[in-house]
Inverse folding.
């Protein structure tokens, strides 16, 4: 494999710097000037490679979530049917989405940006929908006779539990680092199993 292009290297440099700025200064404080300073590039170089500030945030949202979920989505797609749900549960409630993570601060800032920037919102919606669809695929492999509605609602519930627990962890609440969220997730799976059995019966 050849060496990455100069543009790819510079873009990666800028994306890393943008993440550090969002974590340190928040959305309002993440300016092109600060990103340039953090990346070691000039402001004109930042504009050359990623455009204006709005373009920067949109590119960063795509960059972050591509790395954030791509490995999970690919792993579920490539795994055997019997392994899909255990892998998914480990990702959501084990080492994948940690109860406390530096990325949580960044993600909250992106969600804030998405409230007013339709492009950022569309990117986030697409990435979150991809995650929910992946969870649904794992559930379908485990519960092949479940109805689409039951699979969809359970997948969405598991995703919300994982994200909510990750965010709550930033507040230092003891429950976020315990087993309660996994207990709640298992309860959703139990409900899905009961619904599936009722339909089959």
């Amino acid at each position: 494999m050849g060496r990455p292009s100069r543009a790819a290297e510079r873009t990666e440099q800028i994306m890393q710097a943008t993440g550090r700025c969002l974590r340190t200064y928040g959305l309002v404080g993440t300016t092109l000037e600060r990103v340039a300073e953090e990346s070691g590039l000039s402001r004109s170089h930042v504009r050359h490679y990623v455009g204006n500030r709005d373009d920067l945030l949109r590119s960063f949202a795509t960059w972050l979530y591509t790395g954030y979920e791509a490995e999970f989505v690919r792993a579920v797609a490539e795994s055997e049917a019997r392994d899909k749900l255990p892998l998914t549960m480990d990702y959501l409630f084990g080492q994948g989405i940690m109860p406390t993570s530096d990325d949580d601060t960044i993600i909250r800032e992106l969600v804030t940006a998405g409230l007013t920037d339709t492009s950022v919102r569309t990117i986030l919606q697409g990435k979150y929908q991809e995650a929910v669809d992946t969870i649904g695929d794992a559930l379908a492999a485990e519960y092949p006779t479940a109805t689409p509605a039951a699979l969809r609602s359970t997948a969405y519930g598991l995703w919300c539990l994982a994200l909510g627990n990750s965010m709550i962890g930033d507040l230092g609440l003891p429950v976020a680092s315990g087993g309660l969220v996994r207990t709640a997730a298992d309860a959703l799976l139990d409900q899905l199993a009961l619904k599936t059995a009722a339909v089959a019966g």
User: Anything to note?
Assistant: Residues 1-51 form a domain with the Arc Repressor Mutant, subunit A fold (CATH 1.10.10.60). Residues 60 and 99 are 23 Å apart (CA to CA). The chain has two domains: 1-51, 62-200.
